[in-house]
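#random but structural
TW: two for the price of one
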Amino acid sequence: MTPIAPHMSAFLRERLPLQRGASEHTCDSYAYAFQLLVQFASARLQLTPSALSLEQLDAPLIMEFLHSLETERHNSPRTRNARLVAIKSFVHFLEYRVPALLEHSRCILAIPAKKTEIRLVHYLTVEEMQSLLNVPDLQRRDGIRDRAMLHLCFAAGLRVSELVSLPLKALDFYPTPSVRVLGKGRKERTLPLWKETAADMRNWLAVRGTTPARELFVNVHGLPMTRSGFEYILQKHVKTAAQACASLHKKRVSPHVVRHNPAYLLMPSHFAKAGGALA
């Protein structure tokens, strides 16, 4: 029997962060998937986690685990598939470390992902987005920051994680305004900025002040803006904007919705209506 502990430790401590350069979020997600799997296997086999072996984590047990995620934890098929991806990644890792278990690995890798529904992508109209951008008070430092954050998130289609981790040096105004983003999967991209977006960024840099934080956006204490902080700011301004734009009452505005708006504006009819950018 092959102990699972040393191989799982090597996968989580070396393979993911060092060899594959996985993000902290990915490492945490995979670690949680294995925490659930080990808890399930330990209870099912009546063994302590340290006593589990690789041979015991076979395809039938993995299938039971995936089924329990949906029936007992009430996870969605999408979450179930994410846990399966983590398990398969570990199994691929084992193929080279424990060749004697290749047939064992093949059976697990053959477990299919479950079909999921394709979610409808929501977006804001030009009028709704403009109403949201008009809310921050530009006479206040935090209002200048909020408008700059919202405008950049909207214009560049950034994820919240990309927005709050954006370093000061990511901005470049010459020869043309642009922002360099390190996104999901360590993929880097450079995005041009609309004239109005670049103006908002300059306004924020003028009042940002000196702070040890390397991140572009900081809170009132000079610390990097957090995901929850941005989401709070977004919902606060959406609530105010809804008073002037009634259609916002009917929409659930999330950062995911905001970042999909560039695709909507690039549709010829809407882009022409917006004049190529928001005022």
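TW: number two ↓
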Amino acid sequence: MELAREGEPVLDDFASQLGDTEKFVDRLETKVLLSGENDRLNAIVNIHPGAGGTEAQDWAEMLMRMYLRWAEQSGFKTQTLDYQDGEEAGIKSVTFNVIGEYAYGYLLSEAGVHRLVRISPFDANKRRHTSFASVSVYPEIDDKIEVVIEQKDLRIDTYRSSGKGGQHVNTTDSAVRITHIPTGIVVQCQNERSQHKNRDVCMKVLRSRLFELEMDKKKADTQAIEDSKLDIAFGSQIRSYVLQPYRLVKDTRTKVEVGDVDRVLDGDLEPFMKAYLQTRAQQTTAR
């Protein structure tokens, strides 16, 4: 600033440094808002397409890419736990782990139904289609937290993997599906080569889902899990992504709007996550 006052040509450098500082402060402010009980934990993310076949399955895969890109840009590691290809394109479902401090706190804002409006690439008549997909987010529970699971409450099935994997992953009945009978929760994993490893991953996911279910019962104001149980259809979405007839991403809870849809789909979720955390903090203060 002193050099600028003296007439030195430093304004461009100053503006650049100011922009970097603003981004740093913005990230710091967002982190201050991550004060939830489980916000520091890793996250387990599950994506399911709604009704609509190939169109919805393609949208689910677009969401998966968006979150993986966000994780990469934010310095988080990811691990695919279960992946099921769509029949023609996209995915039938995917479950993956996002590993890093505050992963759950950030991603909790994404739990719910996401709506896409676009000209369908699968429609020969180039008509506009609306697709839905649900995103569920659970905290990965630390081994120090005890979650009691009775063996008699479990039904364990094994089957041959049909997803992506190494050359040996599809040659044996290594995939595992575990059903928790009292709650009806079903988890599965087919990405590891051995049945034993797949079972361990399933139990980790099951523990996390049962813990979150119990937390949800104790906290009537926690809506993250309930939002993900809404019908994957009109009126239940938390965010809309419109590619036609105009381009806009709008969060129906916080009213945040971003016109650069491509940037959002490429993983820039900061405006939505920060607005959600601010709203949560305001609601907590009001109570």
